[in-house]
Amino acid sequence: MPAFWSNKPEIFWDKTAVLQALASTVKRDPTASHYMFQDDPYLIPKTTAEFRLFSLSKESGCNAARYIFNTYPKFFETDYAEPHIPCLMPETLEPQTEGVNEAALKELIQLRRVQASVDMFDRLLQAGTTVTLETSNYLLDLLCFYGDREPPRDDQLEEPEQEVVEHQKRRMGQLRRASDFVGVWRQNNNAERIFNLMTERNAPSFCAMIRGMVKYGAYAKAFNMYTELQNNRLTADVHTFNALISATPEVKEKYNEKWALITDLLEHMVEQKVQPNLLTFNAILKSLRRCGALGKTYALQTLCEMKALNIEPSFATFDHLLGIFYKAASSARGQTEILSEVLDEIEGKHFVLQDPNDVHFFADAMRVCLDLKDVELAYRLHRILETGDNWKFAGNPYQQSTYYGRFFNLLCMMEQIDVVLKWYRELVPSLYFPNSQGMRDLLQSLDMDNRLDLVPQIWKDIKQIGHSNKPDLVEEVLMLMARDLQTPELQGSFADCALDIKSVYETREKRRVPLEWTSSALGNIAILVSRAGRTEEAWKMLELFKKSNRVPSNQVMNEFLDSAKQSNNKAHAVHLVKMAAGFALPATAKLARRVMTEFELSEEQKKTLVDLDVQSSDSSDSDDDSDQEQK
Q: φ and ψ at 85, to 5 degrees?
């Protein structure tokens, strides 16, 4: 081999380097759905609820297949891969070690068989076999991690569901404690029993118990266990201190007492020479969010201490800072400066996941932009999301929908309609499925910029996205089209859209609550059809008022009278007055006088209108008399 090869540095390529290079040449198609649905076009979602349902269903199916694959490996013994790929072969889920011994206990722990591990431990003790301290600690870790419960099987998709429900309940203020959503630390459970049976305990034994108690809401017990650890002259690890710091708001009421307890724990870390990590400072900031104004005082000190220790913040760090400093009652200038400084710090950087709370940053920061109505900050935040792989921090489908919903709401309020439509085409449906409020924001943006000609196209999107059964949204569409007179071409387009909406009211689909006719919906459709000169459809709408037991408004009757006047249709005008009398409208007399004034009627028609005028006048007088008597 030539000598110059010996000095050349060896290059190590990532296993997915080729795939990453190919992926960098492909851009997202804004007109297509999410990539996870491309394999099955029939199951392409149209709404946020369908996106969540289909994505969870697909993941659940993969987990179920994996469970069958690993549970019955004898049916999947043929290996076609050359060379052999171990990760594609079934895993061993059944214990292979026979007998009652410590090796069998270790295998059960490794397989995460909680109850079977406890039973094996008890059988070993009953047989007089001493379990080593290391194995006992492994068992404690298993029990404390799962809260002395069996973990969910691979074919059960519980964690994403639980995370979404937890976030929704937190927004509604229904969750107060950790025990509300992760279970409860039961009194005298197997973890406590085994811990008390252990003849020898070391620091990992106490640390496992403390972390488990904090995770499952036994905060006072966790601090008592920490006191016992200190009395035994043992040292806790950094993960245990992180758990205790995050539990401080639960054991103290006053803000200064919470901070004093955090300070004590930090001093213990210094005394025991325990080096803090990123999660330590994030736990401090998370606790300071519940310390009121006191949190603002010490949050920046905590950030400076992180920099002094050369610990790079994560998205969760900045999310906690926004939670501490952003208050609705604060000055708008201060709020803007805080968020702007945070964006200055993270702009252009590529982040990796280091804290489970990292995924909350973008949705919370966009909420701040929306509250401040600062679209420039929102653009900067969105550019950070699109930097590198930062898009992975958008979170689960619910969090992504929240982020893009707030972003789109802000755009509709602050930007011109051309910009709004550009983002609308960019985000929908590849990234965002607007809810009914998002579509209403878009309609209002069209109204502000006088672009009502686009309403029929937006109505098609509303139907496709699945919001055509939302009464408020449907009536908003009809109101915008019927409010003002438009050009004949646009009136024809509005009439087509109105008739399409009429078909939605008349359609009775399974698994869908049908729309109920309202006077405003009937009236607006009738007005739109009448303005387009479609007389037959317009009069059918008036007949629907009777069938639906609804009463048309004065505007509807006047619109129909104007249409009859344009076509000089005396019969329609007289019939309209008769219908008004049949509905017992107070404006019947005015309509009758207007018809007699504006139309050349026959004697018979005049007599009919005079009789209707007298009847309507008598009925209105009797109504006035009864009102006076009641007064």
A: -115, 105
pLDDT of residue 287 exceeding 70? yes
Lowest mean pLDDT among 44-48, 111-115, 186-190, 556-560: 44-48
The pLDDT confidence band at residue 163, using thresholds 50, 70 and 90, is: very low
Q: Please tell me whether residues 412 and 471 are part of one structural domain.
A: no
**What pLDDT score does 176 carry?**
40
Contacts of residue 242, defined as CB under 8 A and 6 or more positions apart, other chains included, come to: 277, 279, 280, 283
Burial 335-362, CB ≥16 within 10 A → b, else e = bbebbeebbeebeeeebeebbebbbbbb
Q: Are 404 and 446 found together in one domain?
A: no
pLDDT, average across residues 259-274? 94
- Evaluate whether 335 touches 368 at the Cβ level (below 8 Å): yes
Looking at residue 628, its pLDDT comes to 43
Averaged over 578-597, what is the pLDDT?
Answer: 81
The CATH number given to whatever domain includes residue 512 is 1.25.40
Crossing angle (nearest 10°) for helices 535-547 and 519-531: 170
Count of domains for the chain? 2
Residues in the chain: 631
* Same domain for 326 and 425: yes
Distance of alpha carbon 186 from alpha carbon 624, whole angstroms:
72
Report the candidate in 443, 406, 446 with the shortest Cα–Cα distance to residue 427: 406
- What confidence tens digit (pLDDT) does each residue in 400-444 have? 889 999 999 999 999 999 999 999 999 988 888 888 899 999 999
CA distances from 77 to 70, 81, 111 (A): 11, 12, 21
Residue 538's closest CA among 528, 551, 547, 546? 528
Specify if 597 maps to a domain: no
Question: Which domain-ending residue is among 492, 523, 550?
Answer: 550
Domain of 408, in residue numbers = 312-432
Which residues are within 8 A (CB) of 146 and not within 5 positions of it... i.e. 6 or more apart?
112, 114
DSSP-derived secondary structure for 53-104: HHHHHHHHHHHHHHHHHHH-GGGG-----SS--GGGSPP--S----SSSHHH
Same domain? 481 vs 492: yes
Q: Of 517, 550, 583, which one is at a domain's C-terminal end?
A: 550
**Do 541 and 529 reside in the same domain of the chain?**
yes
Residue 191 has a pLDDT of 94
Q: Rounded to a whole number, what is the largest CA-CA distance in the chain?
A: 120
| The predicted structure's pLDDT at residue 443 | 95
User: Are residue 390 and residue 413 in the same domain, yes or no?
Assistant: yes
Query: For residues 147 and 185, is the Cβ–Cβ distance under 8 A?
Result: yes
Residue 344 lies in a domain: yes
With a CB cutoff of 8 Å and minimum separation 6, the contacts of 542 are 526, 552, 556, 560, 579
The C-alpha angle 223, 229, 126, rounded to 5 degrees, equals 105
pTM over 0.85: no
Q: Residue 180 has what pLDDT?
A: 40
Q: Do residues 414 and 442 both lie within one domain?
A: no
What's the pLDDT tens digit per position in 515-562? 888 999 999 999 999 998 888 888 888 888 888 888 888 888 888 888
Tokens matching residue 307: 């920099």
Q: Does the bond joining 30 to the residue before it have cis omega, within 30 degrees of 0?
A: no
Q: Which of 363, 276, 277 is nearest to 318 (CA)?
A: 363
Single-letter amino acid, residue 32: A
Task: Provide the 3-class DSSP secondary structure of residue 10.
Answer: coil
Claim to verify: residue 466 and residue 444 sit in the same structural domain: yes
